[in-house]
Amino acid sequence: MSEEIKTKVSRREFLKDAGLVVGGATIGSAAILSACKGETKTVTSTVTNTATSTVTKTVEVKGDTKYVCPFDSMEFNSVADLQAHLASAHADKKLDNIVSFTLNGTPYTLVVEPWWPVSMVLRDILGFYDVKVGCDFGNCGTCTVLVEKNGKQIPMFSCLMVAGELNGKVITTCDGLSNGITPSPVQKKFYDEDAFQCGYCTPGLILAATALLADNPKPTADEVRYAFSGHLCFCNNMTKTVSAMVGGVE
Ligand code: FES
Ligand code: FES
Asked: Which ligand 2 atom is at minimum distance from the Cα of 234?
């Protein structure tokens, strides 16, 4: 393959970036107390500034999830044990800002400022770049995540959530809908029907569609339009996106 062809960016590559396939996740902040369980894994993130550079970090986690104290690196088996340790051993530290939540099936405990937008926590601290930020004030829907409430997945704008309310939340981003290899049925339908152009709005729409189909597996066009009404597609591709979801997925 010629160099010229190799450097072309296809729409499907854009889709990959948009989170239809699990993108890189970077674990890069000292504020992270714990994350991940299972075997050794490598996470990769590509950062583009004036030049493109790739940051690769290997995270080695053995056995069960451990909650690690950020001050002395002691490990604990539960958030409650960690918090008891923090209260007794580090009472002099500012501990109010510790939040624990589950993101795409993985438990996280972070030190945050309560006013941080959740979209910023997900992207800039945890490296979930499938969460897009379009407007940053609740107008475009690109930052949508699913938040579990009473057993249901509710689409919410993460730019309007603050980190202080993360405690106990179970959150799913577009990456979390698949195992990184097999797309979810909604992801596959978007892919098969080319229901995207640049793909920037796509993760939010896929999450909104996933929540809709969980309640209403065979939605009409009006029902899909209503579910997508909080989302903007700057490529003006909504007609195709809506039609891809009418009648649901196989
Ligand atoms: S970035 Fe959150 S609604 Fe636009
Ligand atoms: S496909 Fe480009 S913003 Fe919707």
From this structure: 3
Q: What type of residue is 27? A: I
Q: Residue 62: what pLDDT? A: 38
Q: Find out whether the beta carbon of 233 lies less than 6 Å from any atom of ligand 2.
A: yes
Q: Which residue of 120, 135, 161 sits with most ligand 1 atoms within 8 Å of its CB, as the best mutation to test the pocket?
A: 135
Tokens of 42: 């490598």
pLDDT for position 95: 65
Is 206 near ligand 2, meaning CB less than 6 Å away? no
Query: Token match 């986690």: residue?
Result: 61
Residue with tokens 């490529």: 235
Domain ranges of the chain: 3-129
Contact by Cβ (8 Å): 105, 180: no
Question: Which CA distances in Å does 215 have to 150, 198, 212, 219, 224?
Answer: 13, 28, 5, 9, 12
Tell me the sheet residues that pair with 106: 103
**Predicted TM-score (pTM) of this structure:** 0.71
Q: Which are the contacts of 198, defined by CB distance < 8 A and separation ≥ 6?
A: 14, 234, 235
Of ligand 2's atoms, which has the minimum distance to the CA of residue 142? Answer: 3
Give mean pLDDT in consecutive 10-residue pieces for the chain, a chain of 250 residues: 36 42 29 39 36 38 56 78 83 76 88 90 93 96 97 96 93 94 94 94 98 98 97 95 95
- The string of DSSP codes covering 125-160 is IT--TTS--SSSSSSS-TTEEEEEETTEEEEEEGGG
